[in-house]
Design brief:
Elements (H helix, E strand, L loop, with lengths): L5 E6 L3 H12 L1 H8 L3 E7 L16 E2 L3 H4 L6 E4 L7 H10 L3 E4 L2 H17 L4 E2 L10 H8 L5 E7 L2 H12 L4 H10 L8 H4 L2 H15 L9 E2 L7 H9 L2 E12 L2 E12 L11 E8 L3 E8 L3 H17 L18 E2 L6 E11 L4 H11 L4 E10 L4 E8 L2 E2 H12 L4 E10 L2
Length: 431
């Protein structure tokens, strides 16, 4: 007979695992008073048992052998907070197949294998919960799968990488260059030594893939998500955007219409009075637009030991509450008829274009001609900083809604004009 306790095997005792172990041990009484059941830490898997750790765990609880968790019939739930794809994914599959509930914070595994793992969980009649995989302490996944379930979700868009948001905030307010702001983020421990996953939008694409599946019950593999990083942004982009009434934010956006989904991660201009424009520093925010709820905004700490621990323990509480057969596990079933995933070429958006041009008459007319030929209508043009020595000027153009493919083709043609030194930046404007 399973005990009334929920016995937990914890895989990983790093930043998040250490937080989870500490809360289960220190807050164990308080949690069991609230839910009428104890969540009991039973075993902890690590790589190096000699490593000094902030979380105090009794020595006999630590193991380097995953089987001590996976094959222990008394362990009913496994928390995976190791990271990486392997062996994490292998252990998750083994735990589910052994009939254990699973909680994971692993966005990469959930983005790449989430639908299969959820199906496996259902086959074995166990829960697979992953609130911590997106947005740290923000309860976005539970809301998408439960409270907002009655909605037809139209779009999910947000700031889901705290590192890039920190860098962009420093560039906007302290006028730091990208390399300066990145170095500062690394010095403060917000960015890793190799920042590629964050600054190139890879981490955000994993998270967006998870959100899109929940929002649209439609798989959008990370490799089908269009990505642009933030390293091409320059200080003047922030200045010009501000003068035009916008902030620049790295947004992850997935929207659905007419049986197709489109998903992308890129820096974009956001009106300064929009709530997403006010999300600064390492904070995250996700806006969901649903057919019933309208626009709902979730805001909070997107990473870090405590917020992520909050999400992991919340998932364990949900499992503990539903133990002993109070209904089937929650499931995101994919659509019977898969939706198409639209390429970025089919995006319709407004655009911000920054060009370095010769400071001479007639330049704008040539550019306007190329744009007009492709049905791209100009909303505003501003001539910015001139450089008398080089006889160049910066031209900032905003457009009305146009098709991405047309804008890209037009910019290729524009960059071939003798009077255009370079197309310095092309950003979308989100309304
Ligand atoms: N940190 C955050 O703010 C945050 C936020 C949201 C989600 N997440 C996700 O949470 C997960 C964990 O992140 P973290 O920052 O806590 O990582 P971390 O500090 O690097 O900790 C990883 C832990 O897993 C253990 N481990 C790794 N590979 C192992 C293996 N093959 N066998 C046994 N143990 C292994 C390590 O053992 P040793 O200690 O012995 O090396 C370590 O204790 C990742 O999926 C991450 O994306 C993290």
């Amino acid at each position: 007979m399973p005990s009334q306790d929920l016995n937990v095997g914890l895989m990983g005792l790093g930043v998040v695992g250490g937080g989870v172990a500490a809360v289960l041990q220190e807050q164990g009484d308080a949690i069991s008073r609230k839910i009428g059941r104890r969540i009991q830490l039973k075993k902890v898997l690590v790589r190096d048992p000699r490593r000094p750790r902030s979380a105090q765990v009794p020595e006999g609880m630590i193991t380097t052998n995953p089987e001590e968790i996976l094959a222990d019939p008394e362990i009913q739930a496994v928390v995976e907070v190791m990271g990486g794809t392997n062996p994490a994914a292998r252990y998750l599959r083994a735990a589910l197949a052994a009939g254990k509930h699973v909680v994971t914070a692993n966005k990469e595994v959930m983005a790449k294998e989430g639908p299969e793992l959820l199906a496996l969980a259902q086959r074995h009649n166990v829960h697979l919960l992953f609130e911590a995989s997106v947005g740290g302490g923000i309860p976005i996944i539970g809301c998408l799968t439960n409270q907002l379930l009655a909605n037809e979700v139209r779009s999910v868009r947000g700031i889901i990488n705290g590192t890039t948001n920190y860098i962009l905030t420093r560039m906007a307010y302290q006028h730091a260059s990208f390399p300066q702001a990145l170095k500062e983020a690394q010095d403060r421990g917000y960015a890793e030594a190799d920042p590629t996953n964050d600054v190139e939008g890879i981490d955000a694409a994993y998270k967006l893939s998870v959100l899109a599946y929940l929002a649209f019950q439609q798989r959008v593999p990370p490799e089908n998500i269009y990505r642009e990083g933030i390293s091409r942004l320059e200080v003047q982009d922030f200045r010009y955007a501000q003068e035009l009434g916008y902030a620049i934010k790295s947004l992850a956006i997935a929207n659905a219409a007419d049986g197709a989904v489109q998903a992308r991660v890129y820096p974009a201009l956001v009106p300064v009075d929009h709530m997403l424009a006010k999300v600064d520093g390492v904070y995250n925010a996700v806006e969901v637009e649903g057919s019933l709820c309208g626009r709902v905004l979730f805001h909070g700490m997107g990473a870090g030991r405590e917020p992520t621990t909050s999400a992991v323990v919340g998932d364990l509480v949900e499992i503990a509450r539903r133990m002993n057969g109070s209904g089937p596990p929650p499931l995101v079933a994919p659509r019977e008829q898969a939706w198409a995933v639209k390429p970025i070429d089919d995006l319709y958006s407004r655009y911000y274009l920054r060009l370095n041009v010769s400071d001479q008459p007639g330049v704008l007319a040539q550019i306007a001609h190329i744009l007009g030929d492709r049905q791209i209508s100009i909303a505003a043009v501003v001539q910015k900083d001139t450089n008398p020595a080089e006889q160049t000027a910066e031209l900032v153009i905003t457009t009305h809604t146009a098709r991405e493919a047309s804008v890209q083709q037009a910019m290729k043609q524009v960059s071939d004009l003798g009077v255009v030194r370079q197309v310095s930046n092309l950003l979308r404007i989100e309304e």
